[in-house]
């Protein structure tokens, strides 16, 4: 099927199977064909997701930034802010990461990615030197009941926070408390 719909369906199938680089190739070739149409936004969303899943965080960040300029709805807005926030952290933009992940967390109270968002926001706060907020978010990530808790990563984050402050014995105590 060489139609536009067929091309989009093929790209979606590649995304579903985890072949993100192939999906990106398809979607990149489709984008000029949908420019200025009602399908442009949905293809751009898929391409942003493909770049994010393919761990091309610079492209995902830029594409998410472009999408945030458009009027998105509900789930699309939450997903775009999540991708934007994590990609901002991965590309060393911690202040932007905190802002985008806060927006996501404030507007997606039942999203399964909340625990992960708390974790990435905490690491961004650590990079900004805000230990107290970082540890609060690590605690929320560790104990989150909405999403799948990022327990192991949160524990490592706690140790990293305390290590950066030179509180080695407190780091051990905190880890032991959580592991008990």
Briefly summarize what is shown.
The chain has 180 residues and is mainly α. Helix content is 76%, strand content 0%. The chain is elongated.
Secondary-structure blueprint of this entry?
Blueprint: H1 4-16, H2 20-34, H3 40-53, H4 57-67, H5 74-90, H6 94-107, H7 114-127, H8 131-143, H9 151-164, H10 168-179
Structure notes:
By secondary structure, the protein is mainly alpha-helical. The chain contains ten helices and no strands. The chain is elongated and about 65 Å long. The mean pLDDT is 89.
Number of helices: 10
- Written as H for each helix and E for each strand, in order along the chain, the element string is HHHHHHHHHH
Strand content: under 5%
Structural class: mainly alpha
User: What Rg is obtained from the alpha carbons, in whole angstroms?
Assistant: 19 Å
Helical percentage: over 70%
How many beta strands in the DSSP annotation?
0
Largest sheet: none
Average pLDDT metric: 89
End-to-end span in angstroms?
57 Å
Q: Return residue spans where pLDDT drops below 50 for at least 5 consecutive residues.
A: none
